Amino acid sequence: MLNEKIEACSEIADLEGLYFIWKNLIEGVSSVNSLTNLRLHNKGKINLNIDYALLLFEQLNIVYLQNNSVQLCDLGIKHLKFDLLSYRNWFSKTLLNFLIEENIISLDEIKYDSQIDKYILPRYNIKYKHACYRNLLLSLSILEKSNDGNFYLGDLFVNYIISENKVKRKISEAELLRKLEKQKLLGETGELFVVNYECKRLSIRKDLNKIKRISIMDVSAGYDIISFNDTSSESLDRFIEVKTFKGKPHFHWSSNEIQTAKIKSKNYHLYLIDANKMADPSYTPLIICDPVTYFAKNIDWISSPESFLFEKIDI
């Protein structure tokens, strides 16, 4: 449950302040007065509003507050001997779980920007009245400010969303059919295969960690994987759409993917993956560069419409 009192505080604490409370609680401090006195005599520089930080801890089910008393909700966490970095990771996940479940943060319309290799969260995905939580996320580097008022997702946030599979996909009936077929044809396995394939193809590069599946986070990007065209590429310049099939090569190609392929031109690649051959270490997928141009000139492929969009013309 949200405690509206917290919303009155613009800055609850920084990482060191939150860790200060945590460390003292697991060492046996059990009153607000004791924490306040320890804060006054603390020699380190920390940003901490004890009252609001404790309300936050209570909201996250870390502590139980009653008058001056502060008790840990789960005594088992006393055994979690975190250093500062480990505590940041643990607390950030706890905080994100709460904020997403309470709809304080919306994960809709997250976009990927290949030029800066960052995911962007629209500023309106966190309401103004929840500025205290936004500022806390910035303080913990879970979010980063962008120049246009939006937010970049920090590595902690990206890893959390991927591991927790928190992105909810809103899809049309046609997209649902496409998604079901991708599941049936091991689409996700195909994408993982391509990431591994790209890492092998570009093995001499030192930045292979930048090769990744965009489709996990940005479902409207028009491609699945971002990579490099070659070992001399200075930026992420290969946009890969993965199509996994069984039997005769075939795939569904959405209008959004086609439009993206037109824009990216020779930097857009279609990887056709035979699901029955992925386990073969020597298998090389069919790779089509600039597929819009390729299919326009190639007579070995045929396309057929499976659905049409009808719109009434206003008169």
Automatic annotation (TrEMBL):
It comes from the Bacteria. Residues 190-273 form the Protein NO VEIN C-terminal domain. It holds the Pfam family NOV_C. This is DUF3883 domain-containing protein.
